Amino acid sequence: MKLRIVTGIIISGLFLASCGSSGDEGNIEMSETERAQDEMLNEMAESGEEEMVETFYLPSALQIGSIFQKSGLNYIKGATNPTSNSEKYVSQTSKILNFGIYSADLAYIVLNGQSQDAVNYLKVVSELSDKIGFGTVFESQDLMQRFEANLGNRDSVINVMIDIQARTDMFVDDNNLQDVTYMIFAGAWVEGMYLGVKASDKSNRHSLSGRLVEQMTILNNLNKALRSNENQTDELKEIRKQLVQLEQFFNQLEENKNAQNIASFKDYKLSQEHLDQLSNSIVEIRKSIVNP
Amino acid sequence: MKKVILSLFLGLIIGGQGFSQSSDYCPKTEPVIKCRKALVPYKYTNMVVKRITYKRFNYIEEISIPLYYDARYRFVFNTELLPNDLKIEIYDKPQGEKKREKLFEANSSEKNFNFEPEPGSGLYSVYVDFLIPAYIDENGGSFAKGCVILMTGFEDEVSKAFESSGDASTSGTK
Fold first, then answer.
1. ipTM above 0.90?
2. CATH classification of B25-155 is 2.60.120, yes or no?
3. Of A76, B46, B66, B164, which residue is least crowded by CB atoms under 10 Å?
4. What is the pLDDT of residues A34-49, one digit of tens each?
Protein backbone atom coordinates (compact mmCIF):
# COMPACT_ATOMS: atom_id res chain seq x y z
CA MET A 1 0.00 0.00 0.00
CA LYS A 2 2.76 2.44 1.02
CA LEU A 3 4.67 1.52 -2.10
CA ARG A 4 1.66 2.28 -4.26
CA ILE A 5 1.08 5.67 -2.65
CA VAL A 6 4.72 6.64 -3.02
CA THR A 7 4.77 5.45 -6.62
CA GLY A 8 1.51 7.28 -7.25
CA ILE A 9 3.00 10.48 -5.87
CA ILE A 10 6.07 10.14 -8.07
CA ILE A 11 4.00 9.41 -11.16
CA SER A 12 1.52 12.18 -10.58
CA GLY A 13 4.36 14.58 -9.78
CA LEU A 14 6.14 13.67 -12.99
CA PHE A 15 2.88 13.90 -14.90
CA LEU A 16 2.14 17.39 -13.62
CA ALA A 17 5.70 18.52 -14.20
CA SER A 18 5.50 17.26 -17.78
CA CYS A 19 2.25 19.16 -18.33
CA GLY A 20 3.98 22.37 -17.41
CA SER A 21 6.81 21.97 -19.94
CA SER A 22 7.07 22.21 -23.70
CA GLY A 23 9.24 21.38 -26.76
CA ASP A 24 12.25 19.03 -26.51
CA GLU A 25 12.38 19.37 -22.77
CA GLY A 26 8.83 18.02 -22.68
CA ASN A 27 9.85 15.00 -24.74
CA ILE A 28 12.67 14.16 -22.35
CA GLU A 29 10.30 14.44 -19.38
CA MET A 30 7.70 12.29 -21.11
CA SER A 31 10.23 9.53 -21.48
CA GLU A 32 11.03 9.84 -17.77
CA THR A 33 7.33 9.52 -17.11
CA GLU A 34 7.18 6.45 -19.26
CA ARG A 35 10.14 4.99 -17.45
CA ALA A 36 8.53 5.72 -14.09
CA GLN A 37 5.29 4.24 -15.33
CA ASP A 38 7.07 1.13 -16.48
CA GLU A 39 8.78 0.92 -13.11
CA MET A 40 5.42 1.20 -11.41
CA LEU A 41 3.99 -1.57 -13.56
CA ASN A 42 6.92 -3.80 -12.69
CA GLU A 43 6.43 -3.06 -9.03
CA MET A 44 2.75 -3.81 -9.34
CA ALA A 45 3.43 -7.06 -11.13
CA GLU A 46 5.91 -8.01 -8.41
CA SER A 47 3.58 -7.00 -5.63
CA GLY A 48 0.92 -9.08 -7.37
CA GLU A 49 3.23 -12.04 -6.94
CA GLU A 50 3.80 -11.26 -3.29
CA GLU A 51 0.09 -11.05 -2.64
CA MET A 52 -0.47 -14.51 -4.07
CA VAL A 53 -1.37 -16.76 -1.22
CA GLU A 54 -1.45 -20.52 -1.56
CA THR A 55 -4.95 -21.88 -1.09
CA PHE A 56 -5.59 -24.99 0.98
CA TYR A 57 -8.76 -26.98 1.00
CA LEU A 58 -9.85 -28.47 4.32
CA PRO A 59 -13.21 -30.11 5.03
CA SER A 60 -15.57 -28.97 7.79
CA ALA A 61 -15.65 -30.40 11.32
CA LEU A 62 -19.23 -31.45 10.65
CA GLN A 63 -18.20 -33.48 7.63
CA ILE A 64 -15.41 -35.22 9.53
CA GLY A 65 -17.87 -36.07 12.32
CA SER A 66 -20.43 -37.28 9.83
CA ILE A 67 -17.93 -39.52 8.07
CA PHE A 68 -16.73 -41.07 11.34
CA GLN A 69 -20.28 -41.60 12.53
CA LYS A 70 -21.13 -43.46 9.37
CA SER A 71 -18.32 -45.89 10.19
CA GLY A 72 -19.80 -46.81 13.53
CA LEU A 73 -18.51 -44.05 15.80
CA ASN A 74 -20.65 -44.33 18.91
CA TYR A 75 -21.32 -41.58 21.38
CA ILE A 76 -19.14 -41.78 24.45
CA LYS A 77 -20.20 -39.40 27.15
CA GLY A 78 -17.28 -37.56 28.65
CA ALA A 79 -14.97 -38.07 25.67
CA THR A 80 -15.31 -34.44 24.57
CA ASN A 81 -13.33 -31.58 26.06
CA PRO A 82 -15.28 -30.41 29.15
CA THR A 83 -16.88 -27.00 28.67
CA SER A 84 -15.37 -25.90 32.00
CA ASN A 85 -11.92 -26.04 30.37
CA SER A 86 -12.79 -23.14 28.07
CA GLU A 87 -11.88 -20.59 30.74
CA LYS A 88 -8.30 -21.76 31.03
CA TYR A 89 -7.24 -20.94 27.50
CA VAL A 90 -5.30 -17.71 27.84
CA SER A 91 -3.14 -17.29 24.75
CA GLN A 92 -4.72 -16.49 21.40
CA THR A 93 -3.23 -19.64 19.83
CA SER A 94 -4.72 -21.76 22.58
CA LYS A 95 -8.13 -20.14 22.17
CA ILE A 96 -8.09 -20.66 18.41
CA LEU A 97 -6.99 -24.31 18.59
CA ASN A 98 -9.60 -25.06 21.24
CA PHE A 99 -12.27 -23.27 19.25
CA GLY A 100 -11.54 -26.01 16.69
CA ILE A 101 -11.64 -28.70 19.38
CA TYR A 102 -15.03 -27.51 20.64
CA SER A 103 -16.38 -27.16 17.08
CA ALA A 104 -15.60 -30.83 16.47
CA ASP A 105 -17.15 -31.72 19.84
CA LEU A 106 -20.28 -29.79 18.92
CA ALA A 107 -20.53 -31.65 15.61
CA TYR A 108 -20.06 -34.99 17.42
CA ILE A 109 -22.73 -34.13 19.98
CA VAL A 110 -25.24 -32.88 17.40
CA LEU A 111 -24.72 -35.86 15.12
CA ASN A 112 -25.41 -38.10 18.10
CA GLY A 113 -28.56 -36.23 19.08
CA GLN A 114 -27.33 -35.04 22.50
CA SER A 115 -29.56 -31.97 22.75
CA GLN A 116 -28.67 -30.65 26.20
CA ASP A 117 -24.93 -30.96 25.68
CA ALA A 118 -25.34 -29.31 22.29
CA VAL A 119 -26.61 -26.08 23.87
CA ASN A 120 -23.69 -25.97 26.31
CA TYR A 121 -21.11 -26.61 23.61
CA LEU A 122 -22.64 -24.10 21.24
CA LYS A 123 -22.43 -21.54 24.05
CA VAL A 124 -18.71 -22.26 24.53
CA VAL A 125 -18.07 -22.15 20.78
CA SER A 126 -19.91 -18.83 20.59
CA GLU A 127 -17.97 -17.36 23.55
CA LEU A 128 -14.62 -18.48 22.17
CA SER A 129 -15.54 -17.15 18.73
CA ASP A 130 -15.93 -13.73 20.32
CA LYS A 131 -12.52 -14.02 21.96
CA ILE A 132 -10.76 -14.92 18.72
CA GLY A 133 -12.46 -12.18 16.69
CA PHE A 134 -15.12 -14.34 15.01
CA GLY A 135 -17.98 -12.99 17.12
CA THR A 136 -19.77 -11.54 14.08
CA VAL A 137 -20.52 -15.06 12.86
CA PHE A 138 -22.64 -15.77 15.93
CA GLU A 139 -24.06 -12.26 16.36
CA SER A 140 -27.30 -13.12 14.64
CA GLN A 141 -29.97 -13.90 17.23
CA ASP A 142 -31.79 -15.83 14.55
CA LEU A 143 -28.99 -18.39 14.38
CA MET A 144 -28.99 -19.14 18.10
CA GLN A 145 -32.78 -19.17 18.25
CA ARG A 146 -33.00 -21.56 15.32
CA PHE A 147 -30.47 -23.83 16.99
CA GLU A 148 -32.34 -23.93 20.30
CA ALA A 149 -35.80 -24.17 18.71
CA ASN A 150 -34.76 -27.19 16.66
CA LEU A 151 -32.86 -29.12 19.29
CA GLY A 152 -35.16 -32.10 19.02
CA ASN A 153 -34.72 -32.26 15.27
CA ARG A 154 -31.26 -33.51 14.32
CA ASP A 155 -31.50 -32.59 10.63
CA SER A 156 -32.58 -29.03 11.39
CA VAL A 157 -29.76 -28.58 13.90
CA ILE A 158 -27.31 -29.90 11.31
CA ASN A 159 -28.68 -27.32 8.87
CA VAL A 160 -28.01 -24.58 11.40
CA MET A 161 -24.46 -25.87 11.83
CA ILE A 162 -23.98 -25.87 8.08
CA ASP A 163 -25.13 -22.23 8.05
CA ILE A 164 -22.64 -21.43 10.81
CA GLN A 165 -19.90 -23.03 8.72
CA ALA A 166 -20.94 -21.08 5.61
CA ARG A 167 -21.02 -17.80 7.54
CA THR A 168 -17.62 -18.57 9.04
CA ASP A 169 -16.16 -19.21 5.58
CA MET A 170 -17.56 -15.89 4.29
CA PHE A 171 -16.25 -14.05 7.34
CA VAL A 172 -12.81 -15.63 7.00
CA ASP A 173 -12.55 -14.66 3.37
CA ASP A 174 -13.92 -11.15 3.89
CA ASN A 175 -11.35 -10.50 6.60
CA ASN A 176 -8.45 -12.45 5.15
CA LEU A 177 -8.26 -14.73 8.18
CA GLN A 178 -7.22 -17.94 6.42
CA ASP A 179 -4.30 -18.39 8.83
CA VAL A 180 -6.71 -18.51 11.75
CA THR A 181 -9.05 -20.91 10.03
CA TYR A 182 -6.16 -23.35 9.39
CA MET A 183 -5.42 -23.35 13.13
CA ILE A 184 -9.10 -23.87 13.91
CA PHE A 185 -9.14 -26.81 11.54
CA ALA A 186 -6.03 -28.24 13.22
CA GLY A 187 -7.95 -28.34 16.51
CA ALA A 188 -11.04 -29.79 14.85
CA TRP A 189 -9.03 -32.42 12.99
CA VAL A 190 -7.18 -33.56 16.11
CA GLU A 191 -10.44 -33.78 18.05
CA GLY A 192 -12.16 -35.69 15.25
CA MET A 193 -9.29 -38.19 15.23
CA TYR A 194 -9.30 -38.37 19.02
CA LEU A 195 -13.01 -39.16 19.15
CA GLY A 196 -12.46 -41.80 16.47
CA VAL A 197 -9.69 -43.37 18.57
CA LYS A 198 -11.76 -43.25 21.76
CA ALA A 199 -14.77 -44.86 20.13
CA SER A 200 -12.78 -47.62 18.51
CA ASP A 201 -13.58 -51.08 19.84
CA LYS A 202 -13.48 -54.64 18.56
CA SER A 203 -16.71 -54.32 16.60
CA ASN A 204 -15.78 -51.22 14.61
CA ARG A 205 -11.98 -51.27 14.75
CA HIS A 206 -11.52 -52.19 11.11
CA SER A 207 -13.86 -49.56 9.66
CA LEU A 208 -12.66 -46.87 12.04
CA SER A 209 -8.99 -47.60 11.38
CA GLY A 210 -9.76 -47.18 7.67
CA ARG A 211 -11.24 -43.79 8.50
CA LEU A 212 -8.27 -42.80 10.63
CA VAL A 213 -5.93 -43.68 7.79
CA GLU A 214 -8.10 -41.78 5.33
CA GLN A 215 -7.74 -38.69 7.49
CA MET A 216 -3.99 -38.82 6.96
CA THR A 217 -4.47 -37.55 3.40
CA ILE A 218 -5.99 -34.43 4.94
CA LEU A 219 -3.07 -34.13 7.36
CA ASN A 220 -0.76 -33.41 4.45
CA ASN A 221 -2.89 -30.42 3.43
CA LEU A 222 -3.20 -29.33 7.05
CA ASN A 223 0.56 -29.38 7.63
CA LYS A 224 1.18 -27.36 4.50
CA ALA A 225 -1.47 -24.87 5.56
CA LEU A 226 -0.02 -24.50 9.06
CA ARG A 227 3.47 -24.05 7.65
CA SER A 228 2.20 -21.14 5.55
CA ASN A 229 0.87 -19.41 8.68
CA GLU A 230 2.64 -16.08 9.17
CA ASN A 231 2.07 -15.95 12.91
CA GLN A 232 4.19 -18.85 14.18
CA THR A 233 3.82 -18.75 17.96
CA ASP A 234 5.75 -21.23 20.10
CA GLU A 235 2.53 -23.11 20.83
CA LEU A 236 1.70 -23.41 17.17
CA LYS A 237 5.25 -24.51 16.35
CA GLU A 238 4.95 -27.29 18.93
CA ILE A 239 1.64 -28.54 17.54
CA ARG A 240 3.00 -28.32 14.00
CA LYS A 241 6.04 -30.37 15.03
CA GLN A 242 3.82 -33.08 16.48
CA LEU A 243 1.57 -33.14 13.43
CA VAL A 244 4.55 -33.36 11.07
CA GLN A 245 5.95 -36.25 13.12
CA LEU A 246 2.58 -37.98 12.89
CA GLU A 247 2.57 -37.58 9.11
CA GLN A 248 6.14 -38.88 8.88
CA PHE A 249 5.26 -41.87 11.06
CA PHE A 250 2.34 -42.69 8.81
CA ASN A 251 4.25 -42.21 5.56
CA GLN A 252 6.92 -44.73 6.50
CA LEU A 253 4.46 -47.49 7.46
CA GLU A 254 5.01 -50.82 5.80
CA GLU A 255 1.27 -51.12 5.17
CA ASN A 256 1.42 -48.25 2.67
CA LYS A 257 3.34 -50.44 0.24
CA ASN A 258 0.34 -52.74 0.00
CA ALA A 259 -2.03 -49.80 -0.21
CA GLN A 260 -1.16 -49.10 -3.86
CA ASN A 261 -3.53 -51.78 -5.05
CA ILE A 262 -6.50 -51.24 -2.78
CA ALA A 263 -9.67 -49.67 -4.14
CA SER A 264 -10.25 -47.50 -1.09
CA PHE A 265 -9.14 -46.90 2.48
CA LYS A 266 -11.99 -49.18 3.50
CA ASP A 267 -9.66 -52.07 2.57
CA TYR A 268 -6.56 -50.62 4.20
CA LYS A 269 -5.13 -53.08 6.68
CA LEU A 270 -3.41 -51.33 9.56
CA SER A 271 -1.68 -53.60 12.07
CA GLN A 272 -2.81 -53.43 15.68
CA GLU A 273 0.64 -52.24 16.72
CA HIS A 274 0.60 -49.37 14.26
CA LEU A 275 -2.99 -48.49 15.06
CA ASP A 276 -1.99 -48.25 18.73
CA GLN A 277 0.99 -46.05 17.87
CA LEU A 278 -1.18 -43.81 15.72
CA SER A 279 -3.80 -43.62 18.46
CA ASN A 280 -1.23 -42.78 21.14
CA SER A 281 0.20 -39.98 19.01
CA ILE A 282 -3.26 -38.51 18.52
CA VAL A 283 -3.98 -38.67 22.26
CA GLU A 284 -0.69 -36.87 22.97
CA ILE A 285 -1.29 -34.11 20.42
CA ARG A 286 -4.80 -33.60 21.71
CA LYS A 287 -3.49 -33.42 25.27
CA SER A 288 -1.07 -30.63 24.38
CA ILE A 289 -3.91 -28.59 22.88
CA VAL A 290 -6.55 -29.22 25.53
CA ASN A 291 -4.16 -28.94 28.49
CA PRO A 292 -1.61 -26.38 27.30
CA MET B 1 3.69 24.77 -3.80
CA LYS B 2 0.26 24.33 -5.35
CA LYS B 3 1.74 21.78 -7.73
CA VAL B 4 3.28 19.80 -4.88
CA ILE B 5 0.01 19.69 -2.94
CA LEU B 6 -1.86 18.71 -6.10
CA SER B 7 0.74 16.03 -6.80
CA LEU B 8 0.37 14.62 -3.32
CA PHE B 9 -3.40 14.68 -3.65
CA LEU B 10 -3.35 12.92 -7.01
CA GLY B 11 -0.77 10.49 -5.74
CA LEU B 12 -3.00 9.57 -2.85
CA ILE B 13 -5.93 9.09 -5.21
CA ILE B 14 -3.89 6.82 -7.46
CA GLY B 15 -2.49 4.91 -4.50
CA GLY B 16 -5.95 4.70 -3.00
CA GLN B 17 -7.34 3.32 -6.25
CA GLY B 18 -4.71 0.60 -6.16
CA PHE B 19 -5.85 -0.36 -2.68
CA SER B 20 -9.52 -0.18 -3.54
CA GLN B 21 -8.96 -2.47 -6.53
CA SER B 22 -7.23 -5.07 -4.41
CA SER B 23 -9.94 -5.13 -1.76
CA ASP B 24 -12.99 -4.81 -4.01
CA TYR B 25 -12.21 -7.09 -6.91
CA CYS B 26 -14.13 -9.95 -5.43
CA PRO B 27 -17.67 -8.82 -4.48
CA LYS B 28 -18.79 -12.38 -3.89
CA THR B 29 -22.15 -12.14 -2.12
CA GLU B 30 -24.31 -12.79 -5.22
CA PRO B 31 -22.11 -15.52 -6.72
CA VAL B 32 -22.02 -17.27 -3.35
CA ILE B 33 -25.83 -17.35 -3.22
CA LYS B 34 -25.85 -18.84 -6.73
CA CYS B 35 -23.36 -21.49 -5.63
CA ARG B 36 -25.43 -22.39 -2.57
CA LYS B 37 -28.44 -22.92 -4.84
CA ALA B 38 -26.41 -24.99 -7.30
CA LEU B 39 -25.19 -27.17 -4.44
CA VAL B 40 -28.66 -28.50 -3.56
CA PRO B 41 -29.27 -31.36 -2.64
CA TYR B 42 -25.71 -31.72 -1.39
CA LYS B 43 -24.75 -30.49 2.08
CA TYR B 44 -22.42 -27.51 2.16
CA THR B 45 -19.00 -28.41 3.46
CA ASN B 46 -16.58 -25.72 2.39
CA MET B 47 -16.00 -22.68 0.21
CA VAL B 48 -12.71 -21.59 -1.30
CA VAL B 49 -12.43 -18.14 -2.84
CA LYS B 50 -9.49 -18.56 -5.16
CA ARG B 51 -7.82 -15.22 -5.85
CA ILE B 52 -6.43 -14.99 -9.37
CA THR B 53 -3.74 -12.55 -10.47
CA TYR B 54 -3.09 -12.34 -14.20
CA LYS B 55 0.62 -11.87 -14.78
CA ARG B 56 2.75 -11.28 -17.83
CA PHE B 57 3.28 -15.00 -18.24
CA ASN B 58 1.18 -18.15 -18.27
CA TYR B 59 1.08 -20.13 -15.07
CA ILE B 60 -0.89 -22.84 -13.27
CA GLU B 61 -2.12 -22.88 -9.70
CA GLU B 62 -3.36 -26.07 -8.09
CA ILE B 63 -5.57 -26.89 -5.12
CA SER B 64 -5.72 -30.43 -3.80
CA ILE B 65 -9.04 -31.59 -2.41
CA PRO B 66 -9.07 -34.72 -0.23
CA LEU B 67 -12.08 -36.99 -0.70
CA TYR B 68 -13.72 -39.49 1.63
CA TYR B 69 -14.08 -42.82 -0.10
CA ASP B 70 -17.81 -43.38 0.12
CA ALA B 71 -19.14 -39.84 0.11
CA ARG B 72 -20.64 -38.26 -2.99
CA TYR B 73 -19.39 -34.81 -3.83
CA ARG B 74 -20.45 -31.87 -5.89
CA PHE B 75 -18.00 -29.10 -6.70
CA VAL B 76 -19.72 -25.89 -7.78
CA PHE B 77 -17.67 -23.30 -9.64
CA ASN B 78 -18.60 -19.68 -10.24
CA THR B 79 -16.24 -17.65 -12.40
CA GLU B 80 -18.25 -14.49 -13.05
CA LEU B 81 -15.82 -12.37 -11.00
CA LEU B 82 -12.94 -12.96 -13.39
CA PRO B 83 -11.90 -10.08 -15.67
CA ASN B 84 -10.41 -12.51 -18.22
CA ASP B 85 -10.99 -16.12 -19.09
CA LEU B 86 -9.01 -19.02 -17.76
CA LYS B 87 -9.28 -22.80 -17.90
CA ILE B 88 -10.08 -25.08 -15.02
CA GLU B 89 -8.98 -28.71 -15.18
CA ILE B 90 -9.41 -31.43 -12.59
CA TYR B 91 -7.01 -34.37 -12.32
CA ASP B 92 -6.62 -37.52 -10.25
CA LYS B 93 -2.97 -36.77 -9.49
CA PRO B 94 -0.98 -33.61 -8.80
CA GLN B 95 1.06 -31.64 -11.31
CA GLY B 96 4.30 -33.34 -12.24
CA GLU B 97 2.99 -36.87 -11.69
CA LYS B 98 3.22 -39.19 -14.66
CA LYS B 99 0.06 -40.77 -16.02
CA ARG B 100 -2.34 -38.42 -14.39
CA GLU B 101 -5.82 -38.52 -15.77
CA LYS B 102 -7.92 -35.49 -16.58
CA LEU B 103 -11.34 -35.91 -15.01
CA PHE B 104 -12.95 -32.66 -16.02
CA GLU B 105 -12.28 -29.40 -17.81
CA ALA B 106 -14.16 -26.17 -18.28
CA ASN B 107 -13.60 -22.65 -19.52
CA SER B 108 -14.41 -19.81 -17.17
CA SER B 109 -16.58 -18.22 -19.88
CA GLU B 110 -19.22 -20.78 -18.83
CA LYS B 111 -19.54 -18.82 -15.54
CA ASN B 112 -21.33 -21.57 -13.57
CA PHE B 113 -20.52 -25.27 -13.72
CA ASN B 114 -20.40 -28.33 -11.51
CA PHE B 115 -18.21 -31.36 -11.21
CA GLU B 116 -19.11 -34.57 -9.40
CA PRO B 117 -16.40 -37.20 -8.97
CA GLU B 118 -17.48 -40.71 -9.82
CA PRO B 119 -18.53 -42.34 -6.52
CA GLY B 120 -16.49 -45.38 -5.56
CA SER B 121 -13.73 -44.47 -8.00
CA GLY B 122 -11.09 -44.94 -5.32
CA LEU B 123 -9.87 -41.37 -5.57
CA TYR B 124 -8.25 -40.13 -2.37
CA SER B 125 -7.93 -36.60 -3.67
CA VAL B 126 -8.59 -34.58 -6.76
CA TYR B 127 -6.43 -31.72 -8.01
CA VAL B 128 -8.06 -28.59 -9.36
CA ASP B 129 -5.75 -26.72 -11.74
CA PHE B 130 -6.33 -23.10 -12.68
CA LEU B 131 -4.61 -22.37 -16.00
CA ILE B 132 -4.08 -18.64 -15.85
CA PRO B 133 -3.09 -17.08 -19.17
CA ALA B 134 -0.63 -14.21 -19.54
CA TYR B 135 -2.18 -10.80 -19.64
CA ILE B 136 -1.10 -7.32 -20.52
CA ASP B 137 -3.60 -4.53 -21.15
CA GLU B 138 -3.43 -1.99 -23.96
CA ASN B 139 -1.63 0.51 -21.72
CA GLY B 140 1.05 -2.00 -20.84
CA GLY B 141 -0.40 -2.71 -17.41
CA SER B 142 -0.35 -6.27 -16.15
CA PHE B 143 -2.24 -6.14 -12.94
CA ALA B 144 -5.64 -7.75 -13.52
CA LYS B 145 -7.22 -9.59 -10.65
CA GLY B 146 -10.33 -11.63 -10.07
CA CYS B 147 -11.57 -14.61 -8.16
CA VAL B 148 -13.23 -17.98 -8.59
CA ILE B 149 -15.71 -19.32 -6.06
CA LEU B 150 -15.37 -23.05 -5.48
CA MET B 151 -18.00 -24.49 -3.17
CA THR B 152 -18.13 -28.14 -2.21
CA GLY B 153 -20.94 -30.23 -0.86
CA PHE B 154 -21.27 -33.85 0.10
CA GLU B 155 -23.99 -36.39 0.48
CA ASP B 156 -23.34 -39.62 2.30
CA GLU B 157 -26.52 -41.12 3.66
CA VAL B 158 -29.44 -41.14 1.30
CA SER B 159 -27.90 -40.41 -2.10
CA LYS B 160 -28.19 -43.98 -3.40
CA ALA B 161 -31.94 -43.96 -2.91
CA PHE B 162 -32.18 -40.91 -5.19
CA GLU B 163 -29.88 -42.12 -7.95
CA SER B 164 -32.68 -42.67 -10.43
CA SER B 165 -34.24 -39.25 -9.85
CA GLY B 166 -31.47 -37.50 -11.77
CA ASP B 167 -30.56 -35.30 -8.82
CA ALA B 168 -27.42 -37.17 -8.02
CA SER B 169 -25.78 -37.19 -11.42
CA THR B 170 -22.09 -37.87 -11.73
CA SER B 171 -19.31 -36.17 -13.73
CA GLY B 172 -19.47 -32.61 -14.98
CA THR B 173 -22.55 -30.51 -15.54
CA LYS B 174 -22.54 -27.11 -17.14
1. no
2. yes
3. B164
4. 655 555 555 555 555 5
